[in-house]
TrEMBL record:
This is 3-dehydroquinate synthase. It comes from Formicincola oecophyllae. It is found in: Cytoplasm. Its cofactor is Co(2+); Zn(2+); NAD(+). The lineage of its organism: Bacteria, Pseudomonadati, Pseudomonadota, Alphaproteobacteria, Acetobacterales. Residues 251-405 form the 3-dehydroquinate synthase C-terminal domain. Catalyzes the conversion of 3-deoxy-D-arabino-heptulosonate 7-phosphate (DAHP) to dehydroquinate (DHQ). Residues 137-249 form the 3-dehydroquinate synthase N-terminal domain. One of its GO terms (molecular function) is nucleotide binding. GO terms for biological process: amino acid biosynthetic process; aromatic amino acid family biosynthetic process; chorismate biosynthetic process. Binds 1 divalent metal cation per subunit. Can use either Co(2+) or Zn(2+). Pathway: Metabolic intermediate biosynthesis; chorismate biosynthesis; chorismate from D-erythrose 4-phosphate and phosphoenolpyruvate: step 2/7. NAD(+) binds at residues 175-179, 199-200, 212, 221, 239-242.
Length: 442
């Protein structure tokens, strides 16, 4: 396993660190120095050729999960070395000879070179192939990049590249990059081909799959967005080796969510293996990604656009009416990670279920104990951030703005035991208050 970083802060100045990532094979790139208001842009050229999937020296077969739906019909490939062989997987999905990689300033120095070098290797192996031009737009790391202003900067930079409808957008990064780049892909020229290259545990098990893309608004989390399915998800497990431990744990929160929402065997697997997953065991991480993607692919394939009112895709929102309210109360600044907010939200959803008689106190304690053991917050007092726990009134307000709300009334995915759940619209304000009080809010 590679060296795990304890912080997400980029190391060194941008220009200095970036120069290391201009491999000698690149044709002279036109690099624009980082401008504060624009996404960073770099341009590379390589060649477009046939896939090298059958080359025995490079073909370590990845695991494949398929997503099916109306607009969705694509593979999720998971395994090691996928970025290293990125071009051979990506090129067959590129309609034209132009791709734009959208990434962030933490991920670029760690994993961009590997991806770019795969195009170089591919070009060398197919010297007569049509050239591929790759541009790179780099955004600041963190939740703040899921904003209308950052979207505007990225869109301006993208349009300035002279894109056309065959330009492929490649999201290299976590859920923030994926949601932002996906929304850019959905809206630029009314829709561009899109490929997800997730590099966090959260994005490999959840956000890269299913086509939800979007931005945060002052009024709430992900309130601006579109369903826009990728053509391919390439989840390289090697990238998880550089992920900070806190981010790994946050991603684990979504795995537990998936188990509780609709896959009891996954929840039980988590109880048995969660400690190893959050410790970064590569075999367990790979198994967690495979199991969770299989579950999500099934749910999304059956209800791609979240139309099923009670038992469809909405179940993936378990813990999110609570969690999103906490994130919104912290103004989406990223002090509280999404997966941490979800973990607290799961405890609150279990408390709500006990109150409404659909889960037992023992089941609630089982979930809370497991999340606490894996280092995730289970009460509002444990939440990171300078603002302290938000007030109950503020949280109640944000819950009524959630996308699932109707006529100003919040909706909640309520667990029914462990491994089953249902969207419910009859939860009273008194019940929510009681749950918030019991989990450390005032
Ligand atoms: N679209 C969906 O279905 C969906 C599902 C779940 C969550 N989300 C969204 O995803 C976002 C959270 O995603 P996230 O947890 O991936 O956060 P993120 O994208 O902010 O990534 C977390 C941090 O890790 C860094 N990072 C990424 N990959 C790395 C690597 N391999 N090594 C080292 N550092 C790395 C990033 O720069 C960032 O600082 C939230 O905005 C959430 O709303 C969307
Ligand atoms: O894919 C889905 O559907 C989910 O609900 C997955 C969630 O983990 C994710 O956080 C999603 O963005 C939340 O749903 P939203 O519709 O409120 O954005
Ligand atoms: Zn989520």
């Amino acid at each position: 396993m590679g060296k795990r970083r304890s912080t997400c802060q980029p190391r060194g100045g941008w220009n200095r660190s970036w120069q290391r990532f201009w491999p000698s094979w690149l044709t002279t790139p036109s690099c624009h120095p980082c401008r504060p208001s624009l996404a960073r842009l770099d341009t590379f050229e390589t060649t477009l050729g046939p896939p090298a999937m059958n080359n025995p020296s490079t073909a370590q077969q990845p695991l494949c999960v398929h997503v099916k739906g109306l607009a969705a019909d694509y593979d999720i490939l998971t395994g090691q070395g996928l970025l290293q062989r990125g071009a051979e997987h990506i090129i067959p999905h590129m309609k034209g000879g132009h791709g734009v990689i959208i990434t962030d300033e933490n991920v670029a120095p760690l994993h961009l070179e590997t991806l770019l070098e795969s195009f170089q290797a591919h070009a060398k192996a197919h010297p007569k192939a049509k050239p591929v031009r790759l541009d790179v737009l780099t955004v600041p790391a963190g939740e703040r990049s899921k904003s209308l202003s950052r979207y505007g900067h990225v869109m301006d930079s993208l349009l300035a590249l002279g894109i056309d409808r065959r330009t492929t957008i490649l999201a290299l990064g976590g859920g923030v990059v994926g949601d932002l780049a996906g929304f850019v892909a959905a809206t630029a020229l009314r829709g561009l081909p899109f490929i997800q290259l997730p590099t966090t545990l959260l994005s490999q098990v959840d956000s890269s799959v299913g086509g939800k893309t979007g931005l945060n608004a002052a009024a709430g989390k992900n309130l601006i967005g579109a369903f826009w399915q990728p053509q391919l998800v390439l989840a390289d497990s090697d990238t998880l080796a550089t992920l900070p431990e806190r981010e790994l744990k946050a991603g684990y929160g979504e795995i537990v969510k998936s188990g509780l929402a609709g896959d009891k065997a996954l929840f039980e697997w988590c109880e048995a293996n969660g400690a190893g997953v959050v410790a970064g065991d590569p075999t367990l991480l790979a198994e967690a990604v495979r199991r969770t993607c299989t579950f999500k692919a099934r749910i999304v394939s059956a209800d791609e656009h979240e139309r099923n009112e009670t038992t469809g895709r909405a179940l993936l929102n378990l813990g999110h009416t609570f969690g999103h309210a906490f994130e919104t109360a912290q103004h989406h600044e990223g002090a509280l990670l999404h997966g941490e907010a979800v973990a607290l939200g799961l405890c609150q959803a279990m408390a709500l279920a006990v109150l409404r008689g659909s889960a037992t106190e023992e089941e609630k304690q089982r979930v809370t104990r497991h999340l606490a053991q894996t280092g995730l917050p289970t009460t509002a007092q444990e939440l990171p951030g300078d603002h302290g726990a938000p007030s109950i009134e503020v949280l109640l307000h944000h819950m009524t703005r959630d996308k699932k709300a109707r006529d100003g009334k919040a909706a909640f995915v309520v667990p029914h035991g462990l491994g089953a759940s249902q969207l419910e619209r009859t939860v009273t304000t008194a019940e929510i208050r009681q749950v918030l009080l019991a989990t450390g809010c005032a």
